[in-house]
Amino acid sequence: MAEGLIELNGTNFDEAIKAGVVLVDFWAPWCGPCKMQTPILEKVSAAVGDKAVIAKVNVDEAPEVAAKFGIRSIPTLILFKDGENKQQFVGVQQEAGLVAAINAE
User: Fold this and answer.
1) Is 31 exposed, middle or buried (0-12, 13-18, 19+ CB in 10 A)?
2) Of 6, 28, 31, 92, which is the active-site residue?
């Protein structure tokens, strides 16, 4: 997994998002824009440090998690705070916008 990012799946997802601020990237290896998002997320992780966890869910490996949140296009990023969906982004997102959203929580 990329630096500063954690991989989530159906087994560990609920536990990972239940406390604190977690930004989850729903992605797939065959998705071009998803590949562009990963290095941006590495920068976000470095910028926010311990303020938030940055995670990724491979929709091919964890389709039940993607279905739970109605993910229809990827990349989709969801910002959770204490398990609650606070904000959702569709398409490639830039570092500044993501850092601002995290800092607002």
Assistant:
1) middle
2) 31
